[in-house]
Amino acid sequence: MINVTKTFLPPKEEYDRILEEIWHSNQIANGGKLHLELRKKLKERLEVDNIILTANGTLPLQIALNLLGDEGEIITTPFSYVATTSSIVWEKCTPVFVDIHPDFLTIDEKKIEEAITPRTTLILATHVFGNPCNVEIIEKIARKHSLKVVYDAAHCFGIKYKKQSIFNYGDLSTCSFHATKLFHTGEGGAMITKDEKLYQQLFYRHNFGHAGELAYYGLGINAKMSELQAGMGLAVLQYVDSIIANHKKVAEWYDFYLKFNGYRKPSIRKFTEWNYSYYPVIFESAQLLLKIQKKLNENRVFPRRYFYPSLNKLPYVTAVKMEISEITADRIMCLPLAFDLQEKEVKEICRIINSCI
Ligand SMILES: *Cc1c(COP(=O)(O)O)cnc(C)c1O
User: Fold this and answer.
1) How far, in Å, from the CA of 158 to the mean position of ligand 1?
2) Are 117 and 190 in contact (CB under 8 A)?
């Protein structure tokens, strides 16, 4: 059976060896040794100034929206994982959807300004499949209208845009280290910002608002990453470059064996050093997608319909039409992409797809 992704597990002895330190220190929570070590290593690996490690990739979105959203209107993309929209609603803000670009699949920056109202507080856009949004134009629009910019960069481990970590764009970026993501800590996530003051505000909010043992800066919640998660992260981090290299190899096999007749790939924005985290293909019609999905499933291959449905169709948001996002969500599927996928498996998947056209 071949699934859309496969969780990379490090050799168990290596995780055990890291866990030994917990037994030694007897500290399993609250910014222990492993947490601090992972934070330091990620800061270096990702070339960012400030990183806060969290229990998952959704809490950073909630904290950012709670701090900067002001229960206002949030300009956002309808083509992302559900957490992007649900966090907005959860934090009592209102999602205002702006349709996506048909090739890049990121929010269409040309349509942002017409969606801004006096109630708009923030732009929350997703670098979907690790493909950077048009960060320069979004920055300009945000400055002009005094809006904050938050990027859901859940898919962006290791990505650079114009030689800079993609996490360095916008006021802050969030990331997910969930087991299905390229780099993982089991469950886990992070928030990243260049802004020192914002970093301090985010930091105390992710730790109950503590300013020392007995004082509080203000309202906070618990979003801390545990030592067990950090230990998994340290074990996986040693392999992340080889995971990316293997993903690249698999993506190149797909590029080679697929005929791209009746379906296409989204475009990656120029000046991007990508991480090969997903292999999405967009079919000419939803019928063709369903036919191919059925055929692959019969052969025990399980691609996944990322992202479906278009988020403007969720039952808890005000219904609006988002033409390109809806068409895309109906026709897009991510093909299996894992560190250990073999060339003959990719070749067989491609043969099945090509034979359906
Ligand atoms: C995975 C993901 C999240 C949520 O991350 P969790 O770690 O599962 O909470 C948020 N946004 C996007 C775009 C994602 O893909």
Assistant:
1) 16
2) no
Calculate how far, in angstroms, residue 81's C-alpha sits from the geometric centre of ligand 1: 6
What are the tens digits of pLDDT across the range 254-301? 999 999 999 999 999 999 999 999 999 999 999 999 999 999 999 999
**148 and 114 in contact (C-beta within 8 Å)?**
no
CA distance 66 to 331: 34
84 Cβ closer than 6 Å to some ligand 1 atom: yes
Residue corresponding to tokens 């168990």? 12
- The dihedral built from the CA positions of residue 166, 167, 168 and 173, taken in this order, carries a sign that is positive
Instruction: Write down the domain spans for the chain.
Output: 2-237, 240-356
Q: Take atom 6 of ligand 1 and give the residue whose Cα is closest.
A: 57
What class does CATH assign to 2-237?
Answer: alpha beta
What is 240-356's CATH topology? Aspartate Aminotransferase, domain 1 (3.90.1150)
Cβ–ligand 1 contact at 176 (below 6 Å): yes
Residue 62: CB within 6 Å of ligand 1?
A: no
Pocket test for ligand 1, best of 58, 59, 106, 304 (most atoms within 8 A of CB): 58
- The pTM assigned to this predicted structure is 0.97
Q: List pLDDT tens digits, range 8-22.
A: 999 999 999 999 999
Q: Is pLDDT of 206 > 90?
A: yes
Instruction: Tell me the CB-side half-sphere exposure of residue 338, using CA atoms within 13 A.
Output: 20
Q: Is 83 in the pocket of ligand 1 (CB under 6 A)?
A: yes
d(CA 188, CA 185): 5
